[in-house]
Structure to design on (391 residues):
């Protein structure tokens, strides 16, 4: 058993002083310092000095394509491993491997490879071996999208929504970003009703009324709010207007490029912190130098933290979860606790895994991040094993 002492413990939107978190693969107890001093007299405990840092839940990224020069669509074990290993140092302890609109063969390969990786990663974690950020499953961004709002996706491989090849992959697919206007009579949404797959509006030209109807058909989330969708106008409220009208959950990219930094905090306040998730939408250039890369088979030019196709279209980001937190501290007057929740418990609730992660509670996985006073990532633990930083 291990214990982090001399640290602030994040519990229920508060930072608790003079407390100790006791853990192995899961969190065993959160004790007062006096209770811990009594306990350690009769138990063998590996003590970790938190040095005044804050212990918070590990970040969960529900939308990441790649990092460290690798992409989920590379379709090989080595690339996924580099992503999982690399993002740990940014505070990400779990994520959805996110695909692109490419050929069916490439998507099938990415699904199969991710499935195999998860199996091997789980075995390593179960044997107390460091195995990188935990992959929770796959987020299909497309191919069921609107070609007019395709963004950096490939138009030649866009499909009409069908559950025919989704059904055999229900074990691995956890989220699908799609354009509901491409879904005739919401047949696709109805076919997935009652499953645990999150259907999300994105890369969509749907209007306000269509978005409201989609909500009523069980489509309850919106992907990278404002980007690749109809915007807010007082006579044509669009998808963004529907977000404010219905209790959709939404995710948003806080890199200061995809949404204006002076506006993002105000909009989140209107929408509600508890219904907002911060994502990276990171591509293979994340944690890499500036230069030329590719995304979905298209050239991407990375400069000044911006990723763009040759025609200037935004193409993902190089944002990290750790930087997303720091950006929101800088861009908004939202409390740090609210920002932490948008990276932890909120995505856990969306994916219905909040019983096992997303907060520091007894019985949940010991996926934890230590932040210093400047909100830099100091240490990262996954299932109780230190993957980055201290012990």
């Amino acid at each position: 058993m291990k214990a982090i002492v001399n640290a602030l413990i994040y519990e229920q939107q508060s930072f608790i002083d003079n407390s100790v978190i006791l853990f192995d693969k899961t969190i065993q107890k959160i004790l007062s310092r006096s209770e811990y001093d009594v306990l350690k007299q009769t138990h063998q405990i590996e003590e970790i000095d938190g040095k005044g840092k804050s212990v918070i839940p590990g970040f969960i990224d529900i939308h990441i394509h790649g990092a460290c020069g690798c992409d989920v669509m590379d379709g090989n074990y080595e690339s996924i491993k580099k992503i999982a290993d690399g993002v740990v140092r940014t505070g990400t302890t779990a994520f959805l491997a996110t695909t692109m609109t490419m050929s069916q063969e490439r998507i099938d390969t990415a699904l199969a490879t991710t499935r195999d990786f998860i199996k091997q990663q789980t075995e390593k974690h179960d044997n107390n071996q460091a195995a990188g950020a935990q992959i929770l499953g796959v987020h299909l961004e497309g191919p069921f999208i609107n070609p007019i709002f395709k963004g950096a996706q490939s138009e030649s491989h866009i499909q009409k929504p069908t559950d025919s090849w989704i059904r055999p992959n229900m074990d691995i697919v956890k989220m699908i970003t799609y354009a509901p206007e491409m879904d005739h009579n919401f047949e696709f949404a109805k076919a997935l009703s009652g499953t645990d797959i999150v259907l999300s509006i994105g890369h969509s030209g749907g209007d306000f009324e269509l978005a409201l109807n989609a909500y009523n058909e069980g489509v309850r989330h919106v992907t990278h709010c404002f980007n690749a969708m109809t915007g807010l106008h007082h006579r044509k409220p669009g998808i963004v207007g529907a977000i404010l009208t219905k209790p959709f959950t939404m995710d948003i990219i806080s890199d200061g490029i995809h949404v204006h930094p002076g506006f993002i905090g105000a909009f989140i306040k209107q929408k509600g912190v508890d219904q907002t998730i911060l994502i990276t939408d990171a591509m293979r250039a994340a944690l890499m130098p500036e230069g030329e890369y590719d995304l979905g088979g298209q050239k991407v030019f990375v400069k000044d933290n911006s990723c763009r196709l040759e025609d200037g279209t935004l193409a993902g980001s190089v944002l990290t979860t750790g930087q997303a937190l720091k950006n929101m501290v800088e861009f908004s007057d939202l409390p740090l606790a609210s920002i932490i929740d948008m990276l932890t418990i909120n995505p856990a609730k969306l994916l219905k895994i909040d019983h096992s992660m997303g907060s520091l509670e007894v019985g949940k996985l010991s996926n934890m991040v230590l932040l210093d006073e400047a909100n830099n990532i100091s240490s990262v633990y996954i299932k109780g094993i230190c993957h980055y930083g201290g012990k």
The chain has ten helices and 21 strands. Residues 104-126 form the longest helix (23 residues). The longest strand covers residues 2-11. The chain has a mean pLDDT of 96.
